[in-house]
Amino acid sequence: MPPTPMKRTFMRNALIAGAAFAVLAACGTETGDGSDEARGTKAAAPVPVKPVRKPVRGLPGMPPVLDPKDVYAADRPGRLSPVVKDFPSRVYVPNTESDTVSVIDPKTYEIIDTIHVGRQPQHVVPSWDMKTLWVNNNRGHTLTPIDPRTGKAGKPVEVHDPYNLYFTPNGKYAVVMASLDRELVFRDPHTMKRVKTVPVSCYGVNHADFSLDGRYFIVSCEFSGELLKVDTEKMKVIGQQKLPFDGAMPQDVKISPDGKRFYVADMMADGMWVLDGDKFGKPTLLPTGKGTHGLYVSRDSREMYVSNRGEGTVSVFDFARGEVTKKWRLPHGGSPDMGGVSADGKVLWLSGRYNSEVYAIDTRTGEQLARVKVGSGPHGLAVYPQPGRYSLGHTGIFR
Questions:
Q1: Cα Rg of the chain, angstroms
Q2: Hey, is 17 helix, strand or coil?
Q3: Rounded mean pLDDT of 82-88?
């Protein structure tokens, strides 16, 4: 019996509906109605895909960059390398007018040793391989090596005008900041034998920091208010500029965690200059406090502690926000200068340049934990050991 007109209509509609359902099923991954849940099946869990970060093409011979977004990734709390993990924790304080190094036990805040060194020690600098601490005897024209395992000083090495000391990121050279000689002197990092002398036209080269890839570094010239940009591999000055402030006196230099900016403390401009190192264009000034001097990055790479020597304070700079969020004031004043952060990140140690003392400051609260009397003119103290794979010099720049 042939189907009735009504039945034929029903069958035709059923075929159309079935075709439509098949199309929806085929497109189910792109529509809510055709999802696995709507079909009564369970979807496979998506496979997490890590974003691919282009590796940094670093200076030849330099250890690979651990995190392109954070040059301080190796400096997390307590992450001591096998080289230094057994070294006793100490604070080494060079006293420029006493020609000594005071050694402090950070647990007791007591001086446990006094090491006699050369004339006018300015900074205590960890070597690139982290095995030696070099005392920069500026007017004595020597470097005194200290074994951080034993705390004993070795035979001084003759080096002219060693105001400060850095190391190239590949460990190939030591770089002496010969401030009064107006030179950058590249030397063998172990024997300190002179390899190349780079004369500079600015006055008072003193502090520096290296780019993310280690291919250049920025140098501050204290007495002429200038900055230099130096090609690390070519050992050549490739840029020079005058800071846009009358009487500028740039001091410490530090790169941002993401490697995009350099910060330069200026104790006459009372703030930090913020500079794009790659472009080396005109910097902008960020006020922090009177006598801005030392710059120290927190162990989580989120903040930077800025010592304001002229007013006895420490400003806390937030990298993400690009602003000062806190200011800690030392009770009874002081002259906070250079220093470093403890291995666990909980204590900021700073020398009191004009008060013959050292300050221990709680990095969580800003509370002063101790004031330790030391010799005359304490300057670039080193907290040691610290986390990191290698040292770029100064009082401890680790990566």
A1: 29
A2: helix
A3: 97
